[in-house]
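In the present case, backbone shapes were mapped to integers, as reproduced here:
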Amino acid sequence: MAPSMQRYAFLGWLVPVFLALSTMTRIALGVSLGNAMPGPGGWLEALAVGVGYDLVTAAYVALPYVLWLTLFPMRWRTNRTFATLGLAVRWLTLAGLVFVALAEWLFWQEFGSRFNFIAVDYLVYTHEVIGNIRESYPVGPLLAGVGALAALGVWATRRLRLGVLSDRSRLGVVAGFSVVTLASCATLSGDSKDLSANHYVNELSGNGIYSFFAAYRNNELDYARFYRTLPAEAAMRRLRALVATPEASFVSSNPYDLTRRIRHTGPEKHLNVVLISVESLSSDFMGVFGNKQGLTPNLDHMAQDGLFFSRMYATGTRTVRGLEALSLAAPPTPGQSIVRRPGNEGLFTMATVFNERGYESRYLYGGYGYFDNMNAYFSANGYTVKDRLAIDSKDIHAENVWGVADEDLFTLGLREFDSIHQSGKPFFAHLMTTSNHRPFTFPTGRVNRPQGDRDAAVAYTDWAIGDFVRRARSHPWFADTVFVIVADHQASSAGKTDLPVNRYHIPLIVWSPGNVAPARVDRLMSQIDVAPTLFGLLNFSYTSRFIGQDVFARAPEQDRAFISTYQALGLLRPDRLAILEPKGHSAVQAVINLDTGEVRNAPSAGDEALLEDAIAYYQGASQAFRQGLMKAPGR
């Protein structure tokens, strides 16, 4: 029988093509890093470890074909139709692999990693994701290019049939591929590749397809199962000590109960509060942090004329993490954000405190709030939600797949605030912007910068916030309103380390002429501290279940922030960083410089107290949520 008619000839083509394409993808991603990629040693490790992951992934990819080839009757293979079908299968297979490589390239440029849980999450929200791709990239030409490259590849490899397996060993072939896949499931994980101190080397050592399915399996992580722990009661006792501040007293001696009474002297200030969480507003976009491009004149002015917190850090790398931290004042739990978890109803949130004082609380979003479970989460936790459906088309100046332009979201806000003010009630509103998100489109004529450019989108968002404040000045509630501006996360979280500290640095501005005196605060703090600090500024006395603290009530030596990916959990002190990673044994410390973002390994002796603080915070937050201790009192 001719070699082309042999049963497993297709595998002799598929496996080497898969390995070659995976290697080329790895090299292209590494080259795109420029100087961020280490020297020959880093390249050698990435390529050597990468071949192992590629081989395992090739076995996964090939297994369905193995089963098909084993069961397909050989007598049909002499048919000309079968030969045509074989070419079509090769083209479709190679087109799929080239498409994945292209998707990896685009994902790498955005997130600095192979496919991870973000890619998994995006499959749930196909409308937004596909729309974002269509608005950001020339989809037609890209797909045509994928098809053409696949056709060229099939032609160039038409005679390739490396190591064709014998037709007589069908059972052995099926068993061999099955054993490889099952054995890799039992012995290999997504983080087995992480042998380097350099994040990029570890990412390049993996395989995108393998990483995708590994992220799918680990999208929900049980802290107690995967991370280093303390005895449950010891963790909660330590956490109680960490959250204690002079103005707070615990309501009980129960070590599991974080409930505290916060007391301030003097009358409360029942001012309106407008919290704007700005999409992807990195600190390095702003002039007050040294940017010379003039992208944020309005925000820079508000920083100088308001209360400016210069060392604020985002808890995570996605909007849903920022929303979690701001509303719950709790550290991130591994895996999914609480915003998207079951059992997240009736929690103690910012709105809980405001609503107890007769406020009307709103969550306003310019997109469709089913994305990331926003509508369900906020409406179940004390907020009235208004999203894209509440905005009349005549009020929209521009929109993309993520939502309306920021100025149109602010118009919705002005309408809501007027209505609440006329009812005689104060209001609290959390507005989530979207314009500073790819595809970076906005109304024309607002800023003298090109559409589709991130810097232009930052400049537009700044313009929209300035325009919002200018319009708000003419409304009767303006003089009694506090504006809080904070980023949901940074524009990019990629770096040489798993948790590049400078990539989590974001601005926080509290601005209210006549109510909040201008000052610069250089205290290290986290998004989870925004709510307690704001309530302290308003002089609120309340019962709290927050893990966050009022930065002005906390001793400077207690300053800390939380930074994380969906797996790596970091506790940041002014000069040190503790990182907890899955499998319990991964607790890494580093000495850091907040001014430069420099990270270096700590002395081998480490800092056990810092590690135990990190464990107490993250284990305690996970326990509190699972045991219902984040619920609002009486829920």
User: Anything to note?
Assistant: The two ends are 74 Å apart (CA to CA). The longest helix spans residues 40-71. The CA atoms of residues 228 and 416 lie 47 Å apart. The chain is about 40% helix and 15% strand.
